[in-house]
Write a structure and sequence with these properties.
Helices cover about 0% and strands about 50% of the residues. It is elongated and about 75 Å long. The chain contains 1 helix and 17 strands. The longest helix is centred in the first third of the chain and has 4 residues.
């Protein structure tokens, strides 16, 4: 399994950023600087390799024990004897397991919640939570990513029936929001806020997901603010286009 590490947040839903009257674009404004923390090291390939035996998440490999598919609990250890992996196998496929860092601390844990839902958690080497991913029928619907400090970096939640997000939240190293997308009032309507470096509100407004065009359109009034908090512009949107604007 691959873990989301970058700010490429456009899969499934283009985000309406706060450039004035500009098309949907990247989450982070290109001319501004945010203090983003250390996301940590990528999981080692040998620990990622166990994901290939997790059929729930799409793995298609079968582990062999004595020439036959493994059944029951199996453990692997590092050369120095520290526990590396402990998992329960059914016909060579993992159903529940934990992997461990060389230090002995837990690196990840996968378990089923019920016949439909499952959860995968990972931890940084220092013991702080790294990621949390919730699945339904093997498809991720919620994902969280944390800095090495444990501070939440990014959160996303997908709509259960439409190919779009219902929540997208990005934070800097100090926990100040960079960009937020949350459910609004109405079907497939979302409230969006973007912030200046340091946490001051930059803009806010609503957008609606259109299942036909598989994208978002701004709707209603969008308001823009300076870094000092002064209102500088209002724009009224109709069908994703500016219908009227007012400067202050």
């Amino acid at each position: 399994m691959k873990y989301a590490r970058s700010f490429s947040l456009l899969s499934g839903l283009a985000l309406c950023a706060c450039g004035l009257a500009q098309p949907d674009t990247l989450l982070l404004a290109q001319d501004e600087h945010y203090i983003m923390g250390d996301p940590g090291e990528d999981p080692s390939p040998d620990l990622n390799a166990y994901e290939e035996m997790n059929s729930t998440l799409g793995g298609d490999s079968v582990r062999q024990c004595g020439g036959h598919p493994c059944i029951g609990w199996v453990e692997d250890h590092y050369p120095n004897g520290v526990l590396k992996h402990r998992g329960y196998y059914d016909a060579g496929r993992l159903t529940v397991y934990k992997n461990y860092h060389p230090s002995g601390s837990v690196e990840r844990e996968f378990k089923g919640i019920d016949a439909v839902k499952s959860v995968l958690r990972t931890w940084h080497a220092n013991g702080n939570e790294r990621t949390l991913t919730r699945y339904a029928n093997g498809v991720a619907f919620e994902y969280q990513d944390h800095y090495v400090t444990g501070q939440l970096r990014y959160l996303e939640e997908r709509h259960r029936s439409e190919p779009c997000f219902v929540r997208m939240e990005l934070y800097d190293a100090d926990g100040k929001p960079v960009s937020l997308l949350r459910p609004g009032k109405g079907k497939l309507v979302f409230e969006q806020e973007e912030f200046h470096p340091g946490g001051a509100l930059k803009c806010k407004g609503s957008a609606r997901y259109d299942p036909v065009r598989m994208g978002t359109q701004r709707i209603g009034m969008w308001t823009y603010f300076s870094a000092s908090g002064a209102k500088v512009l209002e724009e009224d949107y109709v069908d994703g286009k500016v219908h009227a604007s007012r400067s202050f």
